[in-house]
Write the structure tokens for this entry.
Amino acid sequence: MTEHEHVRVAVIGSGFGGLGAAVRLRREGITDFVVLERAGAVGGTWRDNSYPGCACDVPSHLYSFSFAPNPDWPRTFSGQEHIHDYLEHVADTFRLRPHIRLNSEVKLMRWDSGELRWEIETSNGTLTADVVVSATGPLSDPKIPDIPGIDTFPGKVFHSARWDHDYDLRGKRVAMIGTGASAIQIVPAIQREVGKLTLFQRTPPWVMPRADRAISGAERWLHKQLPFTTQARRGILWGIRELQVQAFTKRPNELGMVERIAKRNMYRAIKDPVLRDKLTPTYRIGCKRILLSNTYYPALAKPNVDVVASGLSEVRGNTLVASDGTETEVDAIVFGTGFHVTDMPIADRVVGDEGHTLMETWKDGMKSLRGATAAGFPNWMTIIGPNTGLGNSSMILMIESQLNYLADYMRQLDVLGGRAALAPRPSAVGAWNRRVQERMKRTVWNTGGCNSWYLDENGVNTTVWPGTTTEFRAATRRVDLSEYEVLRAPDPVEAAPAPRTRKKPGTKKVEAGA
């Protein structure tokens, strides 16, 4: 970067959100932008999460951009390597490489209210931008709990999102901490090669069968020759999930039948009644993320696997001590403990118009306008912001809705002309969030009887969208200027201080023009 480089838009992150934003900017005729990526390659969470067994739990044809369909997905639920390859393909197909600045981690973004622009410091230089699009994503910064004694553990420790491929697990005694989406894929992937695997489980997840299979050559040929068949497949997958939303958001008691299917999935593999009891959730299905696997339960039933139905509380040398007092000796610890979702670290690097960081502004909970913009932060937008997550469908649908909002946001700035910025009105942000939280009261995420990562430290669900993707798309189709204050940079002539006459001895100071 040059020392005084200025761009129209700076996009932070090169995962689905960042690359999607870049494509949409180009399609809107905006080419004066950069994509700042802290790593050495694009891909976001699908670059970072390369652990054994990593795959998506959303069908491939729905977990891809509508403007970049892939007729050649190899499986109905694709693995990490195929999704990462897809994102690399998007970067090449839409000629995004010249805009991407790799190894450029954002250290600080500060709003200049005089110039109406963002000053951005990165590990690879500085620049300014009229608009910032933050697409760092909620699943980008791993969370490792502060366990007493963990720093003195003599063995290997790493998070699932920072897998150490140089460490050989064969024959080792391994502890898996957590039972989330990553853990249920890792456990069956490493169970056969480790000597002993101990799973530390605070809360058992609901696990449904995974209807995964290879997509035949004939299907892929058909999708290539007749592109509308790919669109139809995507449409069917989307429609089924739209119909499921009512049960999650308005009628959680209807999920009882789904629970019975999940229990049958467990009972087929787990014959030991004691283990069954450990693995049976006591909360309503859907309250926490529903997981998909055909191999998780069979792996837990193997003789070299133990399930400790308690969280890890202390480390004493090679010995791990659970909250219930259970002690286990291990050689390696793998944390599958999730990410900083409701306390995203990037928020501590964004300084708004009053000198406060976004983290400080959100100290009582994340709040945004339509999941995109935040009060006190003009011309700043986030992709996958507060209350845009989904419990049953593809986040790509939500991302594309936010890209529509971004496109109209840029159009509105063009119509305003000159040096202008849009600042969300606090009243509009408050009104939007009150509506969202009122709808949230009836949802399974708030009433299901669990403590999930959807909830912040105050117990408020600032993560999930309490409606259909169709509703969200309608809500983000256009920018409502009544929800924003239009900021204008002062005219250079008017802003200049009035000239003063030189004070002569024995005379009063006279202002020019008096």
